[in-house]
Each structure stands twice: as structure tokens, then as C-alpha cells.
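Standup, Tuesday
Yesterday: got the pipeline producing C-alpha cells again.
Today: sanity-check two examples.
Blockers: none.

Example 1:
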Amino acid sequence: MIDLHTHTTNSDGTDSPHALINKALSAGIKVLGVTDHDTTSGWEDAIRARRADLHLALGAEISCLTDDGVAVHMLGLLFDGQNSQMQIMLEESRDSRLPRMRKMTELLTADGIDISLDEVFAAMPEGATLGRPHLADALVAKGHVASRDEAFADLLHNGSKYYVTHLAPTPEDAIRTIRSAGGVAVIAHPFATRRGQTLSAMSFPSLIEAGLNGVEVDHRDHSQDERQQLRGIAGDLGLVITGASDYHGTGKLNSIGENQTDPAEWERLESMADARRVVTE
């Protein structure tokens, strides 16, 4: 079993890297992608917790914005974690999250949904990358909503009047940076319409030109029609097809390993990195 997209408490998951590793082992995962939002800070703990029969594909999920304002998530896997350009891009994205969160709490409070930045910080694990799931958790704690899912469905989705974008690289810039750091780039859940505005098929040529390696097809937020369309695009463009859980622990319904990547597709994807960086020992 190969699951290339998961999160820990180093971003917006609810499991520590150690707990994530244990759950992956219990689920029978053989290759696990640890891909926290805009950070590599969980890599070291994940490596320490790893056991012999679990291989790690370390990476990050990079928050991007197209030139016309569509939010896109790009999975970077198997890149050199010491690459300065990569770390600068991740740091700049993290730094932009605070003013964004301040504005979102102000918009909510102005509409009578009282929530403060301090309450969001209180809901955020130490060392985590600030994000909307922490605002969702604060809203749950305050009694405004019953769950993270309800918070996103009603208040925090990309089309909500409370949604605020943050400074972010374009998907093409993120791909080029990932590739220059020796890694591979896979666009995450690109047709997930339940999340709000999405990419169109016409967006893929520029992503291919930038160096895109793969597309996450099998994902909880893709309908069967969306999966079928993406398989066709991937086949036409020679992209690797991946599947993943996008596991966040108790913060979302996603179960670890609920969608997986075919071993042959994983082998093809891994071969596209400039060095073998899968952690096996």
C-alpha cells in the first residue's frame, strides 16, 4: 500500500509524526508520503519513528495561487530538504499566513461570529504551520460549529466571503522550484469542486511546461467523473497517476490508505527525482 499525501501536527494534522508512522504501520502502508503544508519540520521526527518495513517519501504540500486567483496545492516529493530556494519558498508562504488569518477572524467577528486570533493560536499545536483547519478548530471550541467539516462547508471554503488568500507562488513557480531542488511535483486534488473554484483542463499545458510530473487522481474530494477525466488528461500528457488519503488525523474524515498509488506508477514517479531520497534505513 502506497499513500503519498498525509499531514501531521507540524501543519494541520492532529497526529504527531510518530503517531502517524504508527498508524501507517498498523494500516499496512509500505510507502508513506509525509507532506505537511509549507514546511519540512516534521521530517526528522518521522525518520526517527520509522520502522524497517515502512519507507518514507518526504515532501511538502505547497500552497499556490494561479494568476487569476485560483488556490492550488502542489505536492513536492523527494526534493533536497537543504535546498535554499525550496526553503525560502516555504518560509515565505508560512510568513504570509498570519496576516491572512488576522483578516479572516476580523471578517467573521464583524458578522457576529466572535473568534479571536488568540483563540486560533490556542487551537494550534506547538510548531504547526498556521492554517484554516486551526481556525475551524477554534470555531468548534467556541461552539460556532460542530466539526471541522462543518466549518469548511459553511464558513471557510474557498468561495466563502470569509476566505482570504495569502501570498503564494504560482503553481508553475512551485513546480520549477521543486524540480530545481531535485524533487518531483504532483498536483493535489486539482478537480475537487467541493473545495471551491478549481483548475480546468486548459491549465495543464503550462504546468507540463514547468515540469509537472504527476496528478493526484484518486482522492476523496474527486467524484468518479472527475477521476475519469483526470485519468484521461494524465494519459494524454504522460503524467504519473497517484492516489492518496490526504490524511489529517481526527480533523477530517479521511482514513489513512483509503486511496493509494499503484506501485508501478510510484516506481515511475520516484525515477523522475534526481537522486534516490526514499528513506529506507
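Example 2:
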Amino acid sequence: MELKTAIMERHSTRGFSDRPVSRETLRDVLTMAERAVSSVNCQPWEFAVVTGDVLRTLCAEITECFERGDPADITPWFGEGIYRSRRSEIGKQLFAAMDICREDREKRRWWTARGYRFFDAPAAILLMMDNSADEFSCRLDMGCVIQNICLASMEFGLGTCVEYQGVSYLEPLRRNLPASQGKRFVCAIAIGYPDESFPANRVVSSRADVDEITSWYGFDEE
């Protein structure tokens, strides 16, 4: 797959087939991904790759925390103004695709709960960095490796969804993933072979026009 095609066609996958993803394939994805840009070559990223019984246990325990209404340890930034509008826009698109009415609280909660189950993907990659890592520069590096994971996955026919819900509750993660001790969770990536019949998988989020968000200096006027 050409890089331009991957960048322009990549979108979040929220429905997966039950086809397992092999350790070899996931290792190949991460091998490609870790060529990401890294400030002074720190390479702050670490991965916990989960599938099978461990993933099922994590899904059950994290979902239980959500269903109980436990306060989350990690929450996203939703922003105001245009940032909130963009979030609202994709939410409306997804609800329309899934035939979820605004007033249907039960179905809306069902949809939300899927995020805490890694969207029922056959595997998940949880991204971590050391507690001693610099929050500013290392977060930038983490963003670079996350993008690489999403693009590299497409080479193998895999879909991905970057999400915070899978790392919202730290206790189940610490209990089931021994390597996470002393680490800071950044995000989770649900990964697997897309279920092409799943309606939400056909939703593609919009992007602002480049000229709306870019200031040009020193160029000859056209």
C-alpha cells in the first residue's frame, strides 16, 4: 500500500471480525511503528500487546468499573468551541450509522461500553511510557509511534481504533499486566481485521481545510 493511500484512507475501525491476529503479524506492525520520530532518540514508548484470555479478563474487569460508575483514572480532553463541535459531529455520524436515537439511553450506554471492551477487537495494544519520562517531549514521541502503528497495520489488512477507555481504570491494568508497574499508560489501540458489515466502520471523520488552519509566510502570491 502506498503511503499517501494509507494516510488518506485510514479511519477508525469500531467493529471487528473474530479472526485472530497472530503474534508474528503484531510484531511486524510494532517493528515498523518503532521507526517513529523520537526526540533525541529517547524512544520512550513501551507496549503491552493483549489477546485471548487476558484480553477477555481485562474487558470484563474494565467494563465492570464502568458499569459501577467508578471514577476514571484517565479522562479525555473534550475542549470547547470548535473542538467540542468536531467531537459532536463525529458522534452524530456514528449514532446515525448505528441507528441510535438521542433519547435511547440504553443503546447509547451500550455503545459507550464497547469502548471499554476495546470494541470487541481480537487484540489490543496498550501504550506506556516510564513514569520518569518528560511529559512534553515524550508525549510528542508517543503520538508519532501511535500514528505509525495505525498506518503500518493497514499493510496487513488490519483496522485500528485509538481510544482512551481501555486505559481509563488503572487497577485492572496493573493487576493483569505485570510489566505495567512503574509505567504511565498513554492510550490503547484496538486492532484486528475489520468487520466490513459493521455500519460504524463506514464512518469517516472530516478534516478542516488546510487553508483554514494554516498561515503562509514568505511565499509569492499566486
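Quick observation on example 2: The chain has eight helices and four strands. The CA atoms of residues 21 and 192 lie 6 Å apart.
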